[in-house]
Protein: adenosine deaminase
Organism: Merluccius polli
Amino acid sequence: IPDPGRREELIKLEASMRVGGNVRLSPEEKLLDARLSKLMQEEVAKEDFPPALHFFKARPLIRSSPIYSLLQKMPKGAALHVHDFAMVDVEWLVRNVTYRPHCYMCYTDDGSLRFFFSSGPPKPLTQCSPWTLLEKLRAKMVNVTDLDNSLISNMTLWTQEDPEEAYPSQDVVWKRFEQAFLATLGLVSYAPVFKDYYHEGLSQFYRDNVMYVEVRALLTQFVEEHPDFFGARIIYTVHRGINASVLILVVKEAMKLQVDFPETMAGFDLVGREDTGWPLWYFREALSLPASQGFKLPYFFHAGETDQEGTEVDQNMLDALLFNTSRIGHGFAVLRHPVAKNLSRLNGVPLEVCPISNQVLKLVTDLRNHPAAVLMSEGHPLVISSDDPSMFGASGLSDDFYEAFVGFGGPSNNLGSLKELAMNSIRYSSLPPNLQEKAMALWQTKWNTFVIENL
Ligand SMILES: O=c1[nH]cnc2c1ncn2[C@@H]1O[C@H](CO)[C@@H](O)[C@H]1O
């Protein structure tokens, strides 16, 4: 016969193990926590429970939730997993960038877009329509809005259609995803646009109360204009489809960048779909190069962004840890790899969890079933990030924080969980210790204000 006292004890023990389970709350924080807990009860009682729905359908429900408005105002710390060309609202790219002079456009045979800035017509691309100057095209059109809307939908996965019908498989969604990146690339890799793009990207995160970003980006004048922003660092990346011999050259380049720009370079990573790319072990010679020369090149590997069991790629998490990765991008496969999971925990190597990305790219349907729901309950080191917000119709970090906070454990979470997640993002960032301390102190001040203002 269970002893009620013992039961109580075990429930408390579990609660103390969660992310944030040991955070002690001040009297003010307790008041806010009580309010939050009431809101959470109302949220989980909703018939259309947002984390159970595809984000494209859930977004209006999320955005009208009082929890979302709190999360928006909350100082969330750092965004540690964000891709370069997926930071800024696509609307901005079309309405601002494609209206600049010298912007050429063409359609590929499979209906995707390519752009190029050039003073005269660029060299024709194979399997692509002839280039047209957008300025000329728009001058001839009666309805430019339709054109602009079609450009927008070409550069994001966001759709009003049923997402399950639009993207029936991982193959389909990844193909569209990579095409959208290629379209964006032609706009953003033009130097004047590049500068504005990063400024705009950092602004979008800053407006969402994020104070530091780790991205494949250049430092801009943004920090001077916003002294309470800690800037951005670059994780230099290359696509995991390249040859092992080419990676040797790329890693050498990364080492050089690390020496030349120690304050901007955070380290190195490989990107692209894991299931169709080379496994990390294939690149072992190149990846061993820095350490074999006594050189410190921090790694931030994408690993375990797969639901395929037992493939070579499925070993990426363990290999990332063996190569001494500083963090793991995604780590969705973690529950199937107990040894990798223990190593990540013992060595304090956090997983960068990106809930909306995993849902849109079809690793999980209902976010309550995301592996990070288990990790949260065990107090595993993790941070929440947004991966490619512009591709998914998300904004800053708030949407992903909502999905994690409400979806991964719902009422088991409290203000302490949010506090710990935000602090984790600073603690696990690659800011050097002195800046980390400064960032944490500033974050604490912002947090106290947030608490008082939202009691
Ligand atoms: O979730 C992701 N996993 C792996 N690779 C990604 C993800 N999101 C974006 N990219 C990769 O980043 C490149 C642009 O920096 C894109 O081409 C895409 O391959």
